[in-house]
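ok trying again, last paste got cut off:
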Amino acid sequence: METSTQKLLFAAELVEENGTYALVVEDLRRGTVQTTPVPKAMVDKLPAFLSALTDKLGPVRQRRGW
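nice, full thing came through this time. structure:
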């Protein structure tokens, strides 16, 4: 039986507050957090971008908890 260990390296959230959006990325290896504003047009295109990325790289295996 093959076992594998997954280690979370980065955590990202897309946050909306009062109609503005921000991408918050936490680097869990370094313990840092970066936040950058994201235009609504980019937020609206995110599902298409993720779909294109999956088409190019292939599906990601499902995570089994952290």
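cool. Helices lie at 40-57. Residues 21 and 39 are 7 Å apart (CA to CA).
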